[in-house]
Amino acid sequence: MKRVLFVVLSLLLVLTGCITIDMGGGSSKAPEIVKFEVNPISISSGGAAILSWEVSNASSVSIDPGIGKTTANSSEKVAPAATTTYTITASNKAGSTRATALLTVSTAVTPPTPPSGSAGLPVITSFSATPSSISAGASTVLSWSVTNATGAKISGIGSVATSGSSSVYPVTTTTYVLEAYNSTGQSSASTVITVAGSTVTPPYSGSVPNIISFAASPSAIAAGDSTVLSWSVANASSVSITGLGSMASNGSMIVTPSSTMMLTLTASNAYGTNYATTTIIVGGSAPPTAMPVPSTWPTITDFHNSGTVVGSGGVLEAKLYWSVSNADTVIIDHGVGSVGTNGSQKVYPVTTTTYTLMASNGGNTMVRTTTVVVTPVAMPVPSTWPTINDFHNSGIVSGPSGLEAKLYWSVSNADTVIIDHGVGPVGASGSQKVYPVTTTTYTLMASNGGNTMAQTTTVVVP
């Protein structure tokens, strides 16, 4: 009888809400956000992107702004009018887990008309990370494509080809900035890689430094002539120029480059970093523009190099030679340091390197450069590594369900072959339809025994 009364009483308590029956999500383990990403991570105003997520061990999932409560595994098209940080919250009785994804919305700007005879500014056609959200310790692949550029560089990586891809391993949420340049000027783009547990920070926020001016006058000189490099920066805690080091916020300097060179000024403060570039053209049809230098200034009579040779131990080496007068200090960068007014020294560059000599006295500085050219040697890929024979796409067409394209691949000597953007593991050769809503770069990774080869193909969506 007591057992019957207990059962009846328990049912009454449940019906009145005094006892809650656990219907799932009551694990002692907090929810796990397996994936939360937006593709692409940057759109133009009026464009759209796909927000996708995968959550385990959660009793409720919600996404702000604009989506609200949702299922644990899904995706949704989003088209915000301005740059938006989306936050996913997964909860159960053990607690809540959050992750963020940043979608950058750029406003279309009419580019300035290039000067007469100019080739125009570089055009960055794509710059993205796949995937854009990772766990700490994982890697992702940066991919980019630039046209009308003589060179490019990526923050944290350095100089890169105008089109390509590179694996990176950020340990915190990181904004990578791509800069492409030519004789007209530079263009830049950024992409954010979100690392789980880190705070997403836009590339520039708050009051960043203002670079008022940065130029060489004249900008084109004959070989052996000099020019005046001058700059003016506001609201910066640090200012530096490539090859010249730290500088005051406002200043000028006489430089005598041995060849055409591009200099980058970097201005930073607590809110971010700003960049500007200027190119000094040496030779060609430039008229003689020798500048008289006061006799009290240092004089750099000579600064050149011997070219590279194979030294002892098979290491590439070169020798720098210099001659300076009327200088209190003479410094050569790239680890050479302080030197006498006349001398020579061996250096061991592994890539083409421009060395800068700075001769100073009483606040006056003269600068000259010499470039040691190192010809890159292609490294053979061991025969035990995977080989990607082919990876291309058919181009975009209109199919029964909307825009579609077909990927084709052929791989040999691989244990696993994976294609990103939802394609997943595939066989060593084959083809598969994909349905991108915006221009998308697909990456194929072929692996065996810890060795991985990667190749990309971009499906252009008009």
Describe this structure in words.
By secondary structure, the chain is mostly beta strands. The chain folds into five domains: 75 residues, Immunoglobulin-like (Sandwich); 73 residues, Immunoglobulin-like; 73 residues, Sandwich (Immunoglobulin-like); 74 residues, Immunoglobulin-like (Sandwich), CATH 2.60.40; 73 residues, Immunoglobulin-like, CATH 2.60.40. Helices cover 3% and strands 56% of the residues. The chain is built from one helix and 40 strands. The strands form nine sheets. A seven-stranded mixed β-sheet has the order 17-19-22-32-31-28-29, with no helix packed on it. A five-stranded mixed β-sheet has the order 2-8-7-4-5, with no helix packed on it. The longest helix has 14 residues. The radius of gyration is 29 Å and the shape is elongated. The chain starts with a helix and ends with a strand. The N terminus is likely disordered.
